[in-house]
Fold these 4 entries.
Entry 1:
Amino acid sequence: MTRRKPVEIETVERPEIVLNVQNGRLSDTDLDRIREAGYDSIARQSETYDELANSIPIVREKMQLVGAPFVSLEWRFNRGDNGEFVSATVMTQDNRLSILNDGSSGIYRQYRELTEKRGSQRGPIMHRDGLSISEYWFNPDTRETAKNRPDDGGDWRKATTFYLT
C-alpha cells in the first residue's frame, strides 16, 4: 500500500486576539490585546454584519430615489413612536434591494391605497419615475401649509413630502 505524502498547507498567522473568554465576556487582558492589535488588524479578521444577517439596507436619503426607477416588491405597515409607517422592499435598476420607510401623507398614504386596490401588500409594482417630491412651508402651531413662506411672523418651517410615481 502506497502512502501519500502529506500536503503542506500554507497558513497565514493571525494573532490570537480573543483569549481567556469566560462567561461570554472579554477579560481586561483580552481587551488590552485587542487595543494593541488595533482597529485595522481586528477589522481584517472580522465578518461583516451583512454577511451574517443577510439584511437589506434602509434608504437613508429618499432623494436618491427621486426620478430613479424602482420596483416595489412588498410592503408592510408598522407601529412606531410617531404613529404608523410603511416599510417597503424595493429593487432599483442596478438590482439593489432596499427598505423604504415612510410615515407621511405621501408614500405611506399611497401604499395604503395600493393595499386597498390590490387586496395585498405585494408587487411587483413599477415606479418608472421613482419618487417625486413636494416642498412647502408648514406651521406646526396652526398645522397650516403654504407654497411660499408667509411673512406673518409665525413658526414656518420648510417641509418635504415624497410621492410614488
Entry 2:
Amino acid sequence: MLRAFAERRADAVAGDRRFVAEGIGAAAPWSGLKGQIDLGSEPCVERIQALINPTRSLREIPKHPCRPLASPAVGADMTQTQAIDTALIRRLRTLIGHRCEHDGQVWRLIDILSGEGLAVLESDLARPPIQMDQYGRASHRANAILQIRILDPVEGALTLEMQDLIDCLESTLRA
C-alpha cells in the first residue's frame, strides 16, 4: 500500500501520513454515494451502470431467507440471561475447572456464558489432535472445545445434556 505514495520507504511513510492528516475531519465518503451503492465521480458511475445488464436474471438473489429466523429461547418478553436463574449460574461457576466424562470422553468445564446460555467444555486429552490452518497444513495442537446449551429453547428448563453434565461434575466434588 505504501508504494502508492513513493518508491522509497521513508518518502512513502511521509506521503501516507500526509494523506491521513488531510483526511482527518473531511466528509465521510458515504455522503458521495449515488443510488446508495455507487461511489465515484459521475463519469465513473455512468460507466459502471452502462455495464449492468437490466435484463439479466436475478436467480442468485434469494426471494426469502435461506433458513427461518431462530425463535426466542424462552419467550419474547424475557432474555436468555434473565431466564437463567442467578443461583444456577453461581452453582455452575463453582464447577469451572472440574473434569467429567461426556459422550465417552473426558472434558473440563472452562466457562459459563450466561448471556448466550452456554456451558463451554474443553477436551482433556493428554495429546490433543493437530489442528489445521485455513490451507489444510498442520499448524498446532489444540484441545477440542464443546458448547452445551444450558436451557431447552422450547421448555425453558435445563437441557438433558446439561443435567447429565451437572450430575457428573458434582459427583467429582463428592469423590
Entry 3:
Amino acid sequence: MADVRNQTLPKIDVGLAQIMRTGWFRAVHVKSAPSHLVRALLVSRGLLVSMRGDIDNQVRGLQKTFGVLFGKAVGGFRKRAAEIVAGDLIDSPELARLMETLLAAREDICRRILTLDREVMKQAKASEVCRRFMTMPGVGAVVALSIWSAIDDPTRFAKSANVGAYFGPTPRRYASGEIDRSGRISKCGDRDPRTHLYEAANVLLTRISRASALREWGLKIAKRSGFKKAKVAVARKMAGILHRMWIDGTEFRPGTQAAAAYSIGGAPHPTSSSPPGRRPEQGRSLRCCPCTDRRTNADTTLTRSSHPRPCCGGDPDHVENHEPGGDLGERA
C-alpha cells in the first residue's frame, strides 16, 4: 500500500481486502478483560510501593540535610522516624511538622498497599493456574499473577522456549558478513513480567536452599559467568517452565534431588564414594581430611551451608588412614 501514489479511502479498502485475501498479515493477540484487570491491579500496587519508597527517601534526605542520620530502621521505619521526631528534632518544630505530614501520608499508603496485597493473594488463590505456578520456588502471588496476565492464552505459543524470548531476557544478536556477535538482553515485551521473573530467579538462587535441578543449573552458570547472567538465564528458563506447567496442568517438579549444598554431619555429597544410606559420624568434620586443604570447591562461594569437597568424598575410612604429614603415598 505504500506504493500507491494517491491513497484514498476506496484504495485503502481494496488494499486491505487484498492483504486479507493473500494472508500477508500477522495475527495480534488481544488480551482478555480478566487479564487487563489483573494487570491494572498489579500496576496500581506497584505505583503505591514506589510512592512509599519515594517518601522514605525524602524523609531520610530531609533529615540528613539538618545533620540527622536516619540509620537502620530497627523495629520498622515508622518507629525509627517517630524516635527521631521526638528526640533529634525537638528543637526544630518546623521540620518535625514536615516529618509528621510525610509519615502520615506514608501510613495511609501502607494501608492501601495492604488492601491490595490481600486482593492479590485472593485472586492468586482463586486461580488454579496461579496455585500451580506458586509451587515453583521463588514464585509468589505477584509473580504468578503477572505471568498469568502476560501470557493470557498459553496456546498462542507453539513452544515453551518461545515464552522466554517473548518476555525479553534473551541476548540480542547482530550478524552481518564476518561479524557475528551477541549483545545484551533484548528487553522485548512487557517490562513488569520480566522484572518479576528476574526477582523470582534472584530468590531461587540466593534465598532458597531447597535443592532442584533448576537451581543447580543456575549455580553452575553463576560459577562460570557470574550471578547476574545466571539470574537472567534462570528467569528465561522459569518462563518456559511455567508455560509448560500451564499447558500440562502439572505442578513444579524439582527434578534431580542432588543437593547443591550439604551440611557437616548430614547426608554425604552426591559425589561421595560412601555407599548409599551411609552417613558420616555425628560431630566428625570433613575438614579433618587433608584433601580439603588442596582442593577448591566453587560451591563454597555460592551457598552458606556448603562445605569444601574432599577428593575422597568424605569417606570416614579414608580420613582415618590419613596422617597429618600428607597423603597416603607420602607415609613413611
Entry 4:
Amino acid sequence: MPHRRCVRHCGPQPFAEASAIKPMNPYAQSKLRAEEFLRAASPGGSGSSVTILRLFNVAGAVHGRGDDDLSRIIPKALAVAAGQEQRLQVNGDGSALRDFVRVSDVADALTLALDSDHPGESQTYNVGSTPASVAEIIKVCGEVKRRSRPGMWCTADLPDGVMLSRMAGVVPACEAATG
C-alpha cells in the first residue's frame, strides 16, 4: 500500500518512523488504523512479529517493463516529453515535494523485511529515497527524452463561482488563508 499523501507531518524533515503522524483524510486514517491493527494483533509475548513498510511514490521499470499509467506523474511527464500526450496538468507551481523510491529498491526492502527475524517485535520502516519537486520531475523527464518542451505543463483549472453567487447569493464562507 503506497503511503502517498497520507499523513501530515509538519515537524523536521525528513520525518522518522517514530514521528507522530496525523491523518489528513479518511484514506490516511485507514492506513494508520491498519498499522495499529497489525501491531495489536501481534502481542509481544506471542513470539510473532510484524514488519510494516511505508512505501512512498514507487517508480521505475522492472525487466524493461515500465509504468504506463498516465494518472501518475512520471509516466505522464515522459509521455508529454515524448510527444505522445499533449499536456501535463499540475496543481500549483510545481514546487510541491514528493518522495520517490525505485521499484527495485522496494523489492529489496520487501526481501530484507521478509528475511529479518525479530520475534515478538513490531518494526516500521519508511521506504522512500529521492525527494523531488514536481517541476524537477518534469525537467528530468524532458532530459531523459532529450526534448525540451517549456510549455508542456500547465496549472490546474480553477473554477469560477460567479454565476452561482449572482443567482443564489452563494459566497464562500472562508478564504484559503482562514479555511
